[in-house]
Design goal:
By secondary structure, the chain is of the alpha/beta class. The protein has ten helices and twelve strands. The strands form three sheets. Strands 5, 6, 7, 8, 9 and 10 form a six-stranded mixed sheet that branches. Strands 1-2-3-4 form a four-stranded mixed sheet, with helices on one face. A two-stranded antiparallel ribbon has the order 11-12. It starts with a strand and ends in a 9-residue tail after the last helix.
Length: about 325
């Protein structure tokens, strides 16, 4: 049964109680607000002759009174006198809240021109890779055997962990076959394992790890592998420093120092600076290495350096043979 009762409050607003779920008849002797269930609507009519400021104060006062009578906030409803609609101020606020809550992020879809451009770029890259592979396959075996690529992972030692110590050393040949890959015991106290970058865990380089090698032994093995070879790598200065070995400048191919792989430090030019191996490998080979959140792998990086070098080997070696640019040498 649906019933409506009206009472009078201060400033003579018209207050209507709409009964939606009630089986008992209203008893005027009892306080009406206390008799209502939570599903009832407490409607207050805002006088139409009030200014905006007065109407705002009126709604504030009447809402306070209604709440003091036990009426829930959600059950209070305002309408403008003479109109059978909600107070526009309250309705607008309600609609804004509903719109805000129901708003879902728009999905972004690539445009057709972007898709076509990406497809064309990918196809061009695949053609370039196939062409380079054919050229590299024709390289004599005796020439391939000249090249060895290396990469190392380091951990931090010292008070701040800024000083680097060798933790893993890897070497691969022209075809990516592993020549050496070992963790290295670090006798000093490690203050920063740099696991998020190096991928090295404490147990890998622990002094009692039988599968790891001592630094002196790794140094000897690496010198044997590089003897009479052309050394390939990226930012080799860091690797050679922690290995505590040297290699002749004319027999070094550092992809971080090869000018076509570098970029100027400013928009208007300037000093050429090296780029990240990850970016160069993706642009020239279409491969992804050193993924975000994953530790680096010295084997993966050594193979990537070799593949990157093979992209430009012919031109690079010709430049050095002519005795011109020293790009890429140390």
């Amino acid at each position: 049964m649906r019933m409506t009762a009206t009472t009078t409050v201060s400033r003579e607003p018209q207050v209507k109680f709409t009964r939606q779920m009630m089986t008992k008849e209203l008893n005027p002797a009892n306080h009406l607000a206390k008799r209502l269930s939570w599903r009832d609507t407490f409607t207050i009519v805002v006088p139409s002759n009030l200014t905006s400021k007065e109407a705002k104060k009126f709604r504030k006062d009447e809402r306070r009174k209604a709440r003091s009578q036990g009426v829930p906030e959600d059950n209070i409803k305002f309408i403008v006198e003479g109109e059978e609609q909600e107070d526009p101020n309250q309705s607008a606020s309600k609609d804004a809240n509903e719109s805000k809550n129901s708003k879902t992020p728009k999905k972004s879809f690539p445009r057709i021109n972007e898709l076509l451009s990406q497809h064309a770029a990918q196809k061009k890259l695949e053609e370039q890779i196939a062409k380079r592979n054919a050229i590299n396959d024709a390289v004599p075996q005796s020439e391939k055997e000249k090249y060895v690529a290396i990469d190392c992972e380091m951990v931090g030692i010292g008070t701040s962990g800024a000083k680097s110590a060798l933790a893993r050393a890897s070497a691969v040949d022209w075809d990516g076959n592993v020549l050496l890959d070992t963790f290295v015991r670090v006798p000093e106290r490690v203050t920063d394992f740099r696991t998020h970058v190096s991928g090295v865990r404490p147990k890998d380089i622990h002094i009692k790890n039988e599968n790891a090698m001592n630094h002196a032994d790794v140094r000897i093995e690496m010198e044997k592998l590089l003897h009479g070879k052309i050394l390939v790598g990226h930012a080799l200065k860091n690797d050679l420093s922690v290995l505590m070995i040297s290699h002749h400048r004319s027999e070094t191919r550092d992809t971080a120092k090869y000018k076509p792989f570098m970029r100027p430090s400013g928009r208007a030019g300037g000093k050429m600076r090296p780029r990240k191996l990850r970016d160069l490998v993706y642009e020239n080979l279409g491969l992804r290495i050193q993924r975000q959140g994953e530790g680096h792998s010295s084997i993966e990086d050594a193979k990537a350096s070799m593949e990157l070098f093979k992209c430009v080997r012919g031109r690079w070696e010709k430049e050095l043979a002519k005795g011109g640019s020293k790009r890429g040498t140390k």
